[in-house]
Amino acid sequence: MTDKKVLTKDNSPTFHSSEYDETYHSTSGALEEANKKYSDVVGIEKYDSVSVLDLCFGLGYNTAAALDKFTGSRMTVVGLESYQGIVDEIINLCDSGEYPFQCEYAMEHVAREGRYSDKTVSVELKMGDARETIKELKDSSFDVVFHDPFSPQKCPELWTEEFFKEVYRVMKKGGKLATYSCARVVRDNLKAAGFEVTDTKPVGRRAPGTMGVKK
Ligand SMILES: C[S@@+](CC[C@H](N)C(=O)[O-])C[C@H]1O[C@@H](n2cnc3c(N)ncnc32)[C@H](O)[C@@H]1O
């Protein structure tokens, strides 16, 4: 793994990707981003039972933030990720005591075994190109989607109308997608795929993120 560890401004670690020349999280705060741009936007604590699709699982922060906040009876998560090197860093961060979430036992288990389950939570990680692995998922399966690829400039293939149509297919009616970008092209592609699009609260910078709802 040639990616370098970086400490973000809220003291949570992330990595800088040598392949994409971008950090995996905003340097203004990785923990803050996972909480405020993803689990808070969809209101994870309001669900009693929820199914989550974590697109671009990486260090698993978006799933971990949701697990830490969840007080309901059942949460199921499917994570899609293509790069094992970053998943292995979950193990290193947990072992060094730097993983910034309480659910580190579950997350280290996911990183080692590809899955974790207990009486409340189940998490399954599917490795491979998300454009392919998403095709294995059934229609209308998810209440919530965390959409967190590298930027549209660096990773355009995960921000296309075609990919958003697949995401739309696997979401339940009324399901919520959260993403950090508010770029025009992203919103146009979400709308073309059928989503209703709104601003989310800005975090760490002035631009808002985006929520897409399946009508
Ligand atoms: C911005 S990072 C995601 C950060 C992550 N949510 C976290 O909490 O660490 C983008 C992630 O997308 C992954 N990725 C890039 N292309 C992909 C693809 N085609 N399919 C699945 N994952 C991909 C990268 O390996 C990286 O882990």
Question: How would you describe this structure to a colleague?
Answer:
By secondary structure, the protein is an alpha/beta fold. The chain has one domain: Rossmann fold (3-Layer(aba) Sandwich), CATH 3.40.50. It contains seven helices and eleven strands. The strands form two sheets. It has an eight-stranded mixed sheet with strand order 6-7-5-4-8-9-11-10, with helices on both faces. It has a three-stranded antiparallel sheet with strand order 1-2-3, with no helix packed on it. Strand 8, helix 6 and strand 9 form a beta-alpha-beta unit. Helix 1 packs across helix 2, helix 3 runs antiparallel to helix 4 and helix 6 packs across helix 7. The longest helix is centred in the N-terminal third of the chain and has 13 residues. The relative contact order is 0.15. The mean pLDDT is 96. The protein binds S-adenosylmethionine. The site of S-adenosylmethionine has 20 residues, from helix 2, strand 5 and helix 5.
Summarize the structure.
This protein has 215 residues and is of the alpha/beta class.
Name the strands of the widest sheet in spatial order: 6-7-5-4-8-9-11-10
- Portion of residues in beta strands equals 25-35%
SS elements, strand count? 11
Mean pLDDT: 96
Q: How would you describe the oligomerization state of the chains in this entry? A: single chain
Morphology: globular
- Just name the CATH architecture: 3-Layer(aba) Sandwich
Order of helices and strands: EEEHEHEHHEEHEHEHEE
CATH fold label: Rossmann fold
What is the CA-CA span between the terminal residues?
41 Å
What Rg, in angstroms, do the CA atoms define?
A: 16 Å
Question: Total number of helical segments?
Answer: 7
Give a short account of the largest sheet.
Answer: 8 strands, mixed
- Kindly report the name of the CATH homologous superfamily: Vaccinia Virus protein VP39
> How many structural units, i.e. domains?
1
CATH class: Alpha Beta
Which structural class best describes the helix and strand composition?
alpha/beta
